[in-house]
Amino acid sequence: MPRSLIHFLKPQASEQKKRIQRELDHLDGLVVLSEEWAEFYQQLTITPIEIIENAVIVPDKPSYNSRATEIITLGRLGKRKGSYDILHMAKQIEAEFPDIHFTLFGDGEIEEVEQEMEALASQNVSLGGWLLKEEREKVMASTVLHLLPSYQEGLPMSILETMAEGIPNLASDVGGIPQVIQDNQNGMMVKPGDITEMTEKLRAFLNDKKLREEFSSAAYKKSKSRFFT
């Protein structure tokens, strides 16, 4: 849940809450991305709420390479997105999986993330900046896993886009993510901030080619059946 809404629910924000409720009640309708957000707003307003999930273009067949060695994350960098947790997880598997490389694409807390990388002496992590459209196909073809261990989320496009390519995800069970990822079926889910669990699941994933392929097939099928546009 966004920080602004967490503040909004605090007792001292009651007057602000009443004002926002009045504004919401005057709407003809409210569109949200997931069931979790619908449940949240249903507590605040009498306005009808409709869920319209994000959609992605799904290719005719996935391009997933189960032998790929790149692990990526797409979106903003920062604590809320679990970026620092990724750095610590990457450090823990660095010696065990020397061929695996992590690239964090996006903007946000670039300097802070770089400082943490220096403190950890990370050798298997790099920052990729914004992923340009012309680079997307090449990056996806070399990606074995997408990470999004966020502390707060809605229904992230990055998860839908990677699943459409048959790329499995390791993500936290927040927001609308559990509607898309079924743990140990088409991907992996963990509690936010649980670096130990993330690392254990990543190890199992990297050590099992058949598991990677099963997750990939299930992720693509899920995307094709529910989020196709």
Name the average pLDDT: 88
- Assembly type of the shown chains? single chain
Which percent range describes the beta-strand content?
5-15%
- How many strand elements? 8
Straight-line distance between termini = 27 Å
Question: Taking Cα atoms only, what radius of gyration do you get, to the nearest Å?
Answer: 19 Å
CATH-defined fold name of the largest domain: Rossmann fold
Helical fraction: 40-55%
State the gist of this model.
By secondary structure, the chain is an alpha/beta fold. 41% of the residues lie in helices and 15% in strands. Residues 66-221 form the Glycosyl transferase family domain.
Which structural traits does this protein have?
Rossmann fold; 229 residues; alpha/beta; 9 helices; two-stranded parallel sheet; single chain; 41% helix
Can you put this structure into words, describing what you see?
The chain has 2 domains: 40 residues, no CATH class; 155 residues, Rossmann fold, CATH 3.40.50.2000. The protein contains 9 helices and 8 strands. Strands 5-4-3-6-7-8 form a 6-stranded parallel β-sheet, sandwiched between helices. A two-stranded parallel ribbon has the order 1-2. Strand 3, helix 4 and strand 4 form a beta-alpha-beta unit. Helix 4 packs parallel to helix 5 and helix 4 packs across helix 8. The radius of gyration is 19 Å and the shape is globular.
